[in-house]
Amino acid sequence: MTAIASPLSRPVVLYSLLLALGMAVVVGTALGFQYIGGYIPCALCLLQRQPYYYGIPIAILGALASFFGLPNWVARALLLAAGILMVVGAGMGVYHAGVEWHFWAGPATCSTSAGSMTQNAGDLLSELNTVTGPSCTDAALRVLGLSFAGWNVIASLILAAFAFVGVRKSA
After folding, report:
1. CA separation (Å) from 3 to 6, 7, 14, 96, 160?
2. Closest Cα partner for 153 from 85, 101, 91?
3. Domain membership flag for residue 11
4. What confidence tens digit (pLDDT) does each residue in 63-111 have?
5. Host domain of residue 57
6. CB neighbours of residue 145 within 10 Å
7. Count of CB atoms within 10 A of residue 107's CB?
8. In a domain, 90, yes or no
9. Considering the domain boundaries, does residue 5 fall inside one?
10. Rounded to two decimals, what is the model's pTM?
11. Among 156, 158, 10, 159, which residue's Cα sits nearest to residue 76?
12. 164 lies in a domain?
């Protein structure tokens, strides 16, 4: 008598779900700092969130592909894609940290200061088009010497390594 393997026992399911959860925690933390902590993100901060926004559903699709018995290479490819997105996110974080440390110039879309919103409801719609985020060159907060961009590099590299280990273990 042979035991029937549960789809949950496949490594790619576990790695994909844990990767999606890790990415959700990281981007959720960033959103918490924004909406609860009051830290307004700059243009580069917002850009660094995109690999997470794309990576979470890709990792979940990888778990679902494995769970529903699609060929193993499909689930592994999706997990690999999510890992590559985390490498891209780390690169974006390095770029942003370099801008903050004035190693190189930031993009022209980064403003020099954030203006306040009007109190006049009639002017609100016209002012929405002119309000910009803070400058990308100034770190809003540093913890242990690292800005949000620096911590994103670390988180992205850990998540990428986790994804790559998952791809290898599920071969």
Report:
1. 9, 12, 20, 51, 33
2. 91
3. no
4. 999 888 888 899 999 999 999 999 999 999 999 998 888 888 877 777 6
5. 16-104+133-170
6. 6
7. 11
8. yes
9. no
10. 0.79
11. 10
12. yes
